[in-house]
Amino acid sequence: MNACPWIYFNGSPGVGKLTIAKQLRDLIPGSKVIHNHLVIELCLGAFERGSQEYEDLRKAVRNEVLSAISTSEKGRETTYIFTGSHGADTSVGPMIARQHSDHAKAQNIPFISVIMTCEEEEHLRRVTSADRKFKLNDIDSLKKTVSSGELFAFQCEYEINPLDVTNLSPLEGAKVIYDFIQECMTKEKLKSTHTTS
After folding, report:
1. How does pLDDT run across 97-155, given as a tens digit for each residue?
2. Which domain of life is it from (predicted)?
3. Using an 8 Å Cβ cutoff, are 56 and 118 in contact?
4. Beta bridge partners of 83
5. Residue 57, domain extent
6. Is 65 inside a domain boundary?
7. Which long-range contacts does 145-150 make (Cβ < 8 Å, 24+ apart)?
8. How many domains in the chain?
9. pLDDT digits (tens, 9 = 90+) for 104-113
10. Which of 113, 135, 132 is nearest to 40 (CA)?
11. Does residue 1 lie in a domain region?
12. Residue 130 burial (CB < 10 Å; 0-12/13-18/19+)?
């Protein structure tokens, strides 16, 4: 049996990654969302953001989680949806993102990347939403983050780059991604059929 895919959403803070991830989870029975704030908040409880200890702990926690789910039978039967916010012009961002694709590749798990974008006016409206508890909701910080450069793209076989979610509801965005996943998994089944015949 082929492994279920891992889907990785990369986008600036406030673009709608987690909201769309939850909608996508509802479309894929048994799927799970592992968003970047789960690891961030855990590690912030131990060390100050940006310190070497904090970065080392984040990497170790991610590695343990990714190893556990990529090597367990139950993990291979589950579609995982991850979120992150990584620029292409930093050393840490691409390394964090690649931890996910490297674990997937090592275990022959299909990896699907979605690079989310949003027009500035709508993006700023979303960032200041009252729903953004414990997340970046400061306009100046967002502008600095967004203007710091291009988003990291995996440039992998299965990637939507970009998916502009400006005029899409969370459900519409999730449906676009869901349809893309179905196309990717059809290709994966064809590959495995050719390999076994």
Report:
1. 999 999 999 999 999 999 999 998 888 888 777 565 545 556 665 565 555 568 999 99
2. Eukaryota
3. no
4. 9
5. 6-196
6. yes
7. 145/12, 145/13, 145/85, 145/87, 146/12, 146/120, 148/87, 148/89, 149/87, 149/88, 149/89, 150/87, 150/88, 150/89
8. 1
9. 999 999 999 9
10. 135
11. no
12. exposed
